[in-house]
Amino acid sequence: MNVITDLVDKAKELVSEATLSPRPAPPIPYGMLAELTHRCPLQCPYCSNPVELDRRNVELDTETWLRVFSEAAKLGVLQVHLSGGEPTARRDLEQMIRHCVEVGLYTNLITAGVGVTPERLQSISDAGIDHVQLSFQGATAEVTDKVSNFRGAHERKLAVAREVRRLGLPLTVNSVVHRANIHQIPAFIELALELDAKRIEIAHSQYYGWALRNRGALMPTRDQVFWALDVVEEARVRLKGRLTIDAVVPDYYAKYPKPCMNGWGRQSLNVTPSGRVLPCHAAETIPNLDFWNVRDHSLSDVWLNAPSFNAFRGTDWMPELCQSCERKEVDWGGCRCQAMAIAGDAAATDPACHKSPLHAHLLALAEADAATGEAEYDYRRYSVPDRNN
Amino acid sequence: MTATFAATDVPKLARGVRLRHDDARGQWVLLAPERVLNPDPVAVEILKRVDGARSIDVIVDELASAFTVDRDRVATDVDAFLAGLAEKGMVELRPAVIGDAAS
Ligand code: SF4
Ligand code: SF4
């Protein structure tokens, strides 16, 4: 018969997402977040970096990062997210990108854009970067500058976005939404279109670390959240084929928790500036987990054997409530860090789940925070200014 | 069905889209911004030839002879396949350049 009969059907299959069906253990990670530095000119109050920021003098050197990238490629990682802090604060960024390209890794730059000159972008592009994600703290200068605590940040970001497109690089606009900018979602979407981005990420602030400190000033109301969901859904349909909208939904007001990381130690890993390997960027908020460092272990050794990775891998660790639930391999019991923050037990069912005995408590917290009217932020910064910054 | 593209058009993967073999999982993958796609073997045969040098005509010729199937059929399918990727911004097409005209 003929091999090519259903080429068109195959084509349709091709453009559907990769099927990430559960694999026999051990799983193979798809993505690695490389937090190259915690240094950053901005001070976003929801920053996902830990409250105790790594200083420059503890950052991994170039050679170690190159080794980690080689090990990641061998382990099966396909995409590397070069992030921070502000990754362009590392002068060896281009060297790392070239190395990633050499070992076959797809490279994604996650930048705040401030301080990135056209010359620097050109050199990053020449090094072979595949994709640029640029954060916008607001859809207008007023909001961006206030949230990032940096006057003129917005203008600089606009210039960087135009330069990225002039170089022919694909651009994603990243926006983290919370009470001070959630009403700007339509404007964020317009901004992405205007900047010729093919993709926008609209992520609701996740309440760990800095954002937990600032929850009173960040938490949106339930009405705002549901309005936002509608706006995003409508835009998705309207802009199909023009703009991809990826949204990270808030789960405080939801019935089910988010499938955090699509399962602990299942698809991705995170390396901090000083070399600790984490199952997710907030994992260090869980006390007593033994995080291994790439200075002492190969990446695959960490992935396969570190107690921190095995602590919540699969479903065996789950409490009875999740064990007996049909969604246990859908949302993986939700977020361990949220369970830690709210229930005081990282192995509890995520209180965002309506079945959790703490669900009402979580909801009450959110509603109380949303009603505070607090507008001052505890900005993200080094406790004592980093002298080398 | 009418073709979306001219047979002389030359397709090329857009910047930020890469086809590679994934040795760890023993499969081909098409990598794009925040996406990992699994092309099946037939799609892979097409994608391997989308190199910014071969025209659609050449790609169709190669596939038709490699798989010994009806050429018209292949042409229709390749066109539809590329149209799908072009709509997603993953493939770009440029008209053939005659000789070495200034571009
Ligand atoms: S969230 Fe803001 S402060 Fe944190 S790294 Fe990104 S730009 Fe810098
Ligand atoms: S009980 Fe556990 S597995 Fe079931 S929906 Fe809630 S969090 Fe998910």
Automatic annotation (TrEMBL), chain B:
InterPro entries per the UniProt record, alphabetical: PQQD, PqqD_bac, PqqD_sf
Alphabetic keyword roster: PQQ biosynthesis
Pathway(s) of this molecule: Cofactor biosynthesis; pyrroloquinoline quinone biosynthesis
Top-level taxon of origin: Bacteria
Keyword Isomerase: no
Transmembrane segments: none
Pfam families the UniProt entry points to: PqqD
Quaternary structure and partners: Monomer. Interacts with PqqE.
Name of the protein: Pyrroloquinoline quinone biosynthesis peptide chaperone PqqD
Organism: Ancylobacter radicis
